[in-house]
């Protein structure tokens, strides 16, 4: 029933577009090629290729903040020349690499409008910003007056940002964020006028792109999934780490944050003339030693100087993977940088008499502070702002390494530090004559801690001795470099260790009960992060729960032997009352609900589960016409299904799954739900199977995930969880995957498939020829009516009822799922606990957006909701 997979080693079917030669592609980019001809032609005619325009031409083609009023044409003319030959080469490469695909993608007219508008309006935005910032950042804006801009970089960057409007949501967002992170990094740290013009052009391109594509720009809040939010935050931390290094490497960085290089890096060597003056005065011997050490700092010294940035870049990768250890590490570094900035700023208030390189940073800050007080606060505000961002997003980073990973890491790091300390002391004693003055072993022992600290921390205190020989320099600098290189590798290796390889003791115990006992279709969801476990006195059953607002909210009923279910129910209720909690069993089957009713508990139906028995599945007959059409069309399109797991899938497949998921989340523009609804985090489990709809070019059109259902040690069924498809892919891919899963798992001997439950959606089976779910006409009880109203209210946003109607085409069996609670007075707290469970990342902004979507209540057809699913 599915298209055969290609033979191993068979190359993918080539895209017809890839057969076009580069000549054909260039021929379709006439504006880009025309600009290149004009660019080089004008450079040759004005003899500007080697060293840029001469003095006469420079006044008419170079753009400065002060030249626009007198030479307005430089706004456009500046894009047609470059500063030197390197500028011509780099500008040409940039225009070709970006311009050729952009012109073909956007069309000639839109490309031309984007290029001209980005250049003109980008300059206007930059000049307007400088005018507004004059009062706050006077020193920076004043220095801008001597800067110039020339070259094609602004208009091509602005056009590229406009072109992202035609991309898929995930890559549009990532490209824009990466581009703006780089441009803002250069503008804030380097601070040149050219950096500001490029940033302004990019902003204009983003605003202009949707208009050129024929739609209105959206400036609303675009939500990300938990996985994508980690990626974006890690990129932010990486940019903040690179910024001070960029400012330190640029000779004349004047940006508002450029002074951070003096606080966090100190990679600029002291002036040789200053060194000569210091060393000629015997009274300043120690200052001379500091200056010589700073001047001699080679690759090892440079690495130690930028050590905080190195660690932040390393930990940013851990943030991308959701690691709690990385979050704690970045938070501590940002707090440390805040303290360091505060100490340095406090030093500005004290007079400095030394002219050494060690005081160069303080002198620079003093100069900035004297001209503009706001500049003094910026070094402290940035790490504080990042600290606040980290604290507000702490829930994103819950992934822990396997048990014992960081205990082992601590022992390894301490052992390496001890070994390197012994090597340093021993080698320095052997090379003692290569140090000035000659150190003894007490001096070397006292110096050991400094060998592991960043260079900026060390230079604040004059060293007792410093190396003068090559071998001594290698030993002196190499200890810290080797230590942090090895430690960084060990830390990075912990990020690579799979979080599911060694679950904690309670999770592993719960998994064992699931495998050996008899749970429900929701049982595997109890192993997801966020749940706590209570085990019965017999140890054969457990309940997964989470506590919020005094409510112990369970995920499903007790897991274990059915003979213990009622006793486990009562035992867990007593356990909750003993802890001062109110128990609430959520999404439990009819049998447990009947027992709870007999015990005086109240209940309300909260979902409808759809069960597909596999023994009779064939998808024959008129009632399955839609399913057969999906299977047949998939075969004609060369689309097959493929079983895999997320962890074992090729990297290219993992990237496509992420892209599909993020596009789905961004299209909804609402918070991603959890609890009984899995995401990419829950997909990354070796026991969860993924079913892909994939074509002959290895393009993934849709993905579904399936959770195992055990009975007495054997898998008897699978539960559908993750279900998302590519917006421009095969339209019936979800129907194709569910049908293919049913036929495939039937052949494997499974008994049933659960198409999972739809929250706040209910249906009754219709015995007619064409059964469809239909709402209950008279729901019993006020709470049921409230839930019906809530389901109808959220339908335009999340589409649970439409999703339940979509599953009806597979002719499933409907089984209600209930919420059980002992006291109606606890219902407000129960509602809060359920909301927090389903929307753990809901904040004020997302809540207001949700209310806006609810009250607008746009009418969407069932087809549109089905497409989102």
What features would you highlight for this structure?
globular, 10% strand, eleven-stranded mixed sheet, two-stranded antiparallel ribbon, 869 residues, 35 helices, alpha+beta, disordered C terminus, disordered N terminus
General description of the model:
- By secondary structure, the chain is an alpha+beta fold.
- An 11-stranded mixed β-sheet has the order 3-4-5-6-13-7-12-11-10-9-8, sandwiched between helices. A two-stranded antiparallel ribbon has the order 1-2.
- A hairpin with a 6-residue loop joins strand 3 and strand 4.
- The two termini are 23 Å apart.
- The N terminus and C terminus are likely disordered.
SSE map:
Blueprint: H1 22-27, H2 30-45, H3 55-61, H4 74-77, H5 85-106, H6 108-133, H7 138-144, H8 153-163, H9 169-190, H10 193-212, H11 226-249, H12 260-264, H13 272-279, H14 285-296, H15 299-305, H16 307-320, H17 324-348, H18 360-371, H19 373-392, H20 405-430, E1 435-436, H21 441-447, H22 455-458, E2 466-467, H23 470-496, H24 505-516, E3 532-535, E4 542-548, E5 551-554, H25 565-578, E6 582-588, H26 590-598, E7 602-613, H27 625-636, E8 640-644, H28 651-668, H29 680-683, E9 689-694, E10 700-711, E11 714-725, H30 733-747, E12 752-759, H31 782-798, H32 800-807, E13 813-821, H33 827-838, H34 844-856, H35 862-868
Parallel strand pairs: 5-6, 11-12
Antiparallel strand pairs: 1-2, 3-4, 4-5, 6-13, 7-12, 7-13, 8-9, 9-10, 10-11
Helix pairs in contact: 2-5, 5-6, 5-8, 6-8, 6-10, 8-10, 9-10, 9-11, 11-16, 13-14, 15-23, 16-17, 16-23, 17-18, 17-19, 18-19, 20-23, 27-30, 31-34
């Amino acid at each position: 029933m599915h298209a055969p997979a290609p033979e191993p080693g068979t190359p993918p079917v080539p895209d017809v577009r890839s057969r076009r030669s580069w000549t054909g592609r260039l021929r379709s980019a006439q504006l880009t090629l025309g600009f290149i001809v004009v660019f080089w032609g004008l450079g040759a005619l004005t003899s500007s290729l080697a060293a840029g325009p001469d003095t006469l031409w420079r006044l008419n083609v170079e753009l400065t903040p002060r030249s626009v009023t007198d030479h307005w044409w430089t706004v456009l003319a500046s894009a047609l020349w470059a500063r030197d030959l390197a500028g011509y080469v780099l500008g040409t490469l940039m225009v070709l690499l970006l311009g050729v695909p952009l012109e073909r993608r956007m069309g000639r007219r839109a490309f031309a409008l984007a290029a001209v508008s980005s250049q003109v309006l980008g300059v206007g935005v930059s000049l307007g910003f400088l005018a507004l910032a004059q009062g706050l950042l006077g020193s920076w804006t004043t220095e801008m007056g001597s800067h110039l801009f020339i070259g094609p970089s602004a208009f091509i960057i602005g056009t590229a940002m406009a072109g992202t409007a035609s991309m898929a949501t995930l890559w549009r967002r990532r490209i824009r964020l990466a581009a703006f992170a780089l441009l803002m990094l250069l503008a804030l740290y380097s601070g040149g006028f050219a950096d500001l013009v490029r940033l302004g052009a990019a902003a204009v391109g983003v605003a202009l792109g949707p208009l050129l594509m024929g739609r209105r720009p959206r400036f609303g809040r675009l939500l990300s999934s938990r996985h994508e939010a980690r990626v974006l935050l890690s990129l932010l931390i990486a940019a903040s780490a690179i910024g001070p290094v960029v400012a330190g490497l640029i000779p004349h960085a004047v940006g508002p944050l450029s002074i951070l290089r003096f606080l966090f890096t100190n990679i600029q060597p002291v002036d040789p003339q200053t060194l000569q003056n210091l060393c000629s005065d015997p009274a300043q011997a120690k200052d001379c030693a500091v200056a010589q050490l700073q001047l001699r700092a080679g690759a090892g010294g440079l690495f130690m100087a930028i050590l905080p940035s190195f660690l932040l870049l390393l930990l940013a990768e851990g943030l991308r993977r959701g690691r709690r250890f990385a979050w704690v590490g970045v938070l501590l570094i940002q707090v440390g940088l805040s303290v360091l900035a505060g100490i340095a700023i406090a030093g500005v208030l004290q007079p400095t008499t030394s002219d050494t390189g060690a005081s160069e940073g303080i002198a620079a800050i003093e100069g900035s502070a004297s001209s503009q007080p706001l500049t003094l606060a910026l070094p402290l505000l940035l790490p504080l702002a990042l600290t606040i961002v980290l604290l507000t997003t702490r829930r994103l980073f819950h992934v822990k390494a396997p048990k014992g990973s960081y205990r082992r890491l601590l022992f390894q790091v301490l052992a390496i530090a001890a070994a390197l300390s012994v090597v340093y002391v021993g080698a320095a004693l052997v090379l003692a004559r290569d140090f000035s003055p000659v150190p003894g072993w007490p001096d070397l022992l006292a110096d050991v801690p400094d060998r592991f600290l960043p260079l900026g921390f060390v230079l604040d205190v004059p060293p007792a001795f410093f190396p003068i020989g090559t071998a001594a320099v290698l030993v002196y600098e190499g200890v810290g470099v080797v230590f942090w290189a090895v430690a960084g590798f060990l830390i990075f290796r912990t990020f690579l260790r799979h979080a599911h390889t060694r679950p904690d003791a309670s999770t592993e115990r719960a998994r064992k009960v699931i495998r050996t006992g008899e749970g429900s279709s929701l049982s595997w969801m109890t192993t997801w992060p966020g749940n706590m476990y209570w085990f019965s006195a017999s140890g054969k059953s457990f309940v997964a729960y989470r506590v919020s607002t005094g409510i112990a909210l369970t995920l499903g009923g007790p897991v274990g032997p059915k003979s213990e279910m009622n006793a486990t129910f009562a035992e867990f209720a007593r356990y909750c009352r003993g802890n001062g909690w109110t128990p609430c069993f959520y999404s439990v089957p009819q049998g447990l609900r009947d027992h709870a009713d007999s015990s005086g508990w109240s209940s309300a139906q909260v979902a409808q589960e759809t069960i597909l028995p596999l023994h009779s599945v064939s998808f024959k007959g008129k009632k399955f016409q839609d399913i057969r059409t999906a299977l047949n069309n998939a075969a004609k399109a060369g689309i097959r299904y493929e079983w895999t797991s997320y962890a074992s899938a090729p990297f290219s497949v993992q990237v496509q799954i992420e892209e599909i998921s993020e596009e789905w989340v961004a299209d909804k523009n609402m918070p991603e739900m959890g609890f009984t609804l899995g995401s990419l985090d829950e997909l990354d489990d070796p026991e969860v199977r993924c079913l892909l709809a994939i074509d002959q070019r290895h393009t993934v059109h849709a993905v579904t995930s399936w959770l195992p259902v055990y009975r007495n040690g054997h898998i008897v069924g699978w539960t559908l969880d993750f279900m998302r498809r590519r917006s421009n892919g095969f339209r019936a891919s979800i129907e194709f995957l569910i049908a293919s899963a049913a036929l495939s798992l039937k052949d494997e001997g499974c008994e049933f498939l659960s198409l999972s439950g739809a929250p706040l959606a209910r249906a009754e089976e219709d015995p007619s020829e064409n059964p469809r779910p239909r709402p209950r006409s008279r729901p019993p009880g006020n709470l049921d009516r409230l839930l019906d109203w809530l389901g109808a209210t959220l339908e335009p946003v999340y589409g649970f009822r439409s999703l339940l109607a979509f599953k009806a085409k597979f002719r499933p069996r409907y089984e209600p799922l209930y919420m059980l609670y002992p006291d109606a007075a606890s219902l407000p707290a129960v509602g809060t606990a359920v909301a927090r469970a389903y929307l753990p990342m809901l904040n004020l902004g997302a809540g207001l957006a949700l209310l806006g979507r609810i009250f607008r209540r746009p009418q969407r057809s069932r087809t549109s909701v089905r497409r989102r699913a």
